[in-house]
Amino acid sequence: MAYLDKITSPRDIKTMTTPELETLAEEIRAGILNRDSKIGGHVGPNLGIVETTIALHYVFNSPQDKIVFDVSHQSYPHKMLTGRQKGFTNDAKMLKISGYTNPQESKHDFFIVGHTSTSVSLACGLAKARDIKGEKHNVIALIGDGSLSGGEALEGLSNAAVLNSNIIIIVNDNEMSIAENHGGLYTNLSLLRQTGGAAECNMFKALGFDYHYVEEGNSLPALIEKLQQLKDTPRPTILHVHTLKGKGYKPAVENKERWHWNLPFDIKSGTVTIPSEGENYNDITFAYLNSKIKQDKDVVVLTAGTPGAFGLTPERREQFGPNYVDVGIAEEHAIAMSSALAKGGCKPVFYVMSSFLQRTYDQLSQDLALNNNPAVILVFSGAISGMDATHLGCFDIPLTSNIPNLVCLAPTTKQEYLAMLDWSLKQRRHPVVIRVPIRVTTSNETVPANYDELNTFQVVHQGKQVALLAAGNFFELGRQTAAQLQKHGIDATLINPRFLSGLDEKCLHELENDHRIIVTLEDGVLDGGFGEKIARFYGPSSVKVLNYGAFKEFPDRIPVTELYQRYRLTPEQITADILRLG
Amino acid sequence: MAYLDKITSPRDIKTMTTPELETLAEEIRAGILNRDSKIGGHVGPNLGIVETTIALHYVFNSPQDKIVFDVSHQSYPHKMLTGRQKGFTNDAKMLKISGYTNPQESKHDFFIVGHTSTSVSLACGLAKARDIKGEKHNVIALIGDGSLSGGEALEGLSNAAVLNSNIIIIVNDNEMSIAENHGGLYTNLSLLRQTGGAAECNMFKALGFDYHYVEEGNSLPALIEKLQQLKDTPRPTILHVHTLKGKGYKPAVENKERWHWNLPFDIKSGTVTIPSEGENYNDITFAYLNSKIKQDKDVVVLTAGTPGAFGLTPERREQFGPNYVDVGIAEEHAIAMSSALAKGGCKPVFYVMSSFLQRTYDQLSQDLALNNNPAVILVFSGAISGMDATHLGCFDIPLTSNIPNLVCLAPTTKQEYLAMLDWSLKQRRHPVVIRVPIRVTTSNETVPANYDELNTFQVVHQGKQVALLAAGNFFELGRQTAAQLQKHGIDATLINPRFLSGLDEKCLHELENDHRIIVTLEDGVLDGGFGEKIARFYGPSSVKVLNYGAFKEFPDRIPVTELYQRYRLTPEQITADILRLG
């Protein structure tokens, strides 16, 4: 690394020649591949944005000039130019640097970001603050074409256009969202690319932006020249750059979807180096829905820009045929459309990650629940996890289960999941949210096919003194705790609540007869969750309640075993607490 | 009413002549004014859309052809043409008909709608369902220019454009949101109006829509001709109609903002007939912020399209000067921008209605709370109320208080509110949500100026046996309940929790010493709220907890006194429950 190692701040690149910067670009690419091949991460987005990032830091003066990265999954080159290159070149340092921007890591980062479509609004706020305070500097948002389709980005664009001041929005157009793009926006981006930015029908100009285009979005001289021209503009400005996603790494260029994000891999072959973990809910869900669609043409599968996260490869999407819709990164639209599909007689199934379901609270409430239409929402990755603070899946129980009319289910086994999914498509009375389990466990016990009688808990084992209400992913923890209690002479009752959105009052009242302690276990944040409803139910009684789940916090890449310890989520800790309570 | 009274279904108007339809239009306008003058409601939007609605029902065949109304605050003419005219002409029947669409009222309504920007996505779902099921009919969304700026509408537009099938989106352009429009979208709508729809730079065409324009949006012949041309189009189509908001009622035309929605009024003079209720939090907040901005130029006030709801008249907005930003109907943008304004050193204060804050869960969580920037959010109308099911303000406590880092405050008096607001602008460590009280009560007691020590509850009266934790609006209910208990010889402790987002564990532990029953009172839904956190805290103890608040449901225009009875929220009911518990 002739150049990268020596960079201490972005100033260091300002005196470099173009050939030197081009060598630097290669070194940065090697850094991206080194990190991603070792610990996994975003590949294509970072490889494509190397030259833009170098040009930005060459022309502008960070951190006085402020660059806001959308999603910030493409901020690796920026990190390497702002003193964090060891997180890419030194294996031992990698985990110290996150895959997203974070002001705690560097003064060149302004926000912790991990969800899409936020950069324009955030940049608007920085620009307005600058103007209010009478400061002078550039504010730049860097947003990918895929992120443009999110409502927040579109609200931001409309507002940025009338800011009447300096704001430069770089649209990094690599012709791809995570998967292929969907939506009319892309019709226009395509026209603009085809015409070298010259088409008169230009949505950015329509909004009132100054508009510029760089076809050679991986050419340093072209980018530097254009950015020098735009620097200090007094006007809201779009710079549309056409880049190559995955540039510099053949596998990533050839299969852009697969290489958007990748597990650790062998650089030479591109093969993933982590063994796959056997049966998973992506495959199970696809197998079920694909067979279902063949029998019932009313079933419609929806995703919002992230089909790959659910194992919905292009081949699988193809198999769904016209009964599959990807709406692009537009979760709000997906929920509203699902509600209306159900109203129109279809059976929509919307796949969504727990963390991204957060974008749809009002659509869940108003468009779906208030209308009580029978759409099905499959929530994936809903669990306490070691994820980045921006992608936690521990908030969806409070998010969904406190909205009237939504039926929220927490299956515990593969059999129960499939039975609940099947029921949710059969019934026509409720919108249903299913929290897809994390680990595949199977059971030989018969699972009911019908869940029409809402909020009926299942008593799996009838004991006494202590009852464990162990929901979804944490049913197994309940079973383990019961085993632990047995060692102390306590024959605990074990209950699978199945429903997170309502209580089985009959069951709970019966427990009062011969139970002193009720324990709830849920794989998510405690505040506003399932356990608190149980605590409220027993509030007026003499039964004691212990609630287990996550604390209200944003843990950042803390190993899940450490979080379990912190939250007292091991069978030993729970047993100790129960014994202490007497 | 020569015509209106006789209409039993939209079919009845298909044989009418243009002059007859024009007379019908006048009758409909009289119906709108009659209803609004008696019970209040949306004035300008309904008066402006009369001809469009008649033309729609003249040309299309509802309910086979499906019309989706955005917000549906402009659905009065539609209601009158679909058998519900008595809700407008007969005073005794008015309250039976809501101000919004509702499938339970009529087969011509497809959704319960009251929030903006949802119609295009809902129409997309109906259109896709039609295509999946092989049906043939038109799907029409009617959306105002003001609603276009919401992210969900923009996501919907981008998706509708690639539907490759029949969907007709009528953009009702009356050159106004609730107040004036803000955003680049309006730059383009203005250009299109000026060019009679001919400008090449057209955001709708850019997205891929067929685009049509009708300048005379209140001319029945012009509208009918155009709609006949568009009927059964196989293409995603925009019909941009230029209408006059408030048409036919001079006061509403002359002051469009004031007449968007109005309290009951005298038709002749336009004067509101309900006496104003004395001091209110709109005036209190304005007076405070206006004086604050004069001293501190870093304070920035934001609204999202509804300044009038907070008493921010044009004159008051003018006084804020450059320190005021209305972002249009774009709540997500408002939260993200607030976070960034705070990051940039400003002191943003975002005014928002509880019901519309629901649109921003992810922005509250990711853009604001995760970044821990010191923005201030003033939540208005957060309370159990007799509102329409689409505008309830009872869900914001679970929405905000379960997000890490957000400090949620519930002031109980004017003095406490102002002290908390002042503190929230002084401190630089937390994003702060203040639930603005509903009724103005004052207190002579000293209120602390500093809330740095989070989650400190205030013991207002130290008693024993029973403690009442009475939050925000319900502090007064706590006081009344304490008085009631006194009659039964119980000297209850009265506590103002002040914070909704965390517990004062020291205070709660101390209560355990000499209290047997802890009662929580909150003016919102119980599920996921404040009381459940108290129940969880005391779960392992022998202290009994009674939680009071709203049930998880969407009550629709139920008088608040009836809801209080239903939820057992009177001092007598609460006292009876406490005595029963022993």
What would a concise description of this structure say?
Chain A has 582 residues and is of the alpha/beta class. The model of chain A has no long low-confidence stretch (mean pLDDT 97).
Which structural category fits the helices and strands of chain A? alpha/beta
What is the tally of beta strands of chain A? 18
Q: Which percent bin holds the helix content of chain A?
A: 25-40%
Average pLDDT number of chain A: 97
Outline the low-pLDDT stretches of chain A.
none
Query: Helical element count of chain A?
Result: 23
Largest interface: A-B, 119 and 119 residues
Describe this structure in words.
- 2 copies of one chain form a homodimer.
- With 582 residues, chain A is α/β, with parallel strands linked by helices.
- Chain A has a 6-stranded parallel beta sheet, with helices on both faces. A 5-stranded parallel beta sheet of chain A has the order 2-3-4-6-5, sandwiched between helices.
- In chain A, helix 13 (314-320) links the parallel strand 8 (299-303) and strand 9.
- In chain A, helix 14 (331-343) runs parallel beside helix 16 (361-369).
- At the A-B interface, helix 6, helix 7, helix 8, helix 9 and helix 14 of A face helix 6, helix 7, helix 8, helix 9 and helix 14 of B.
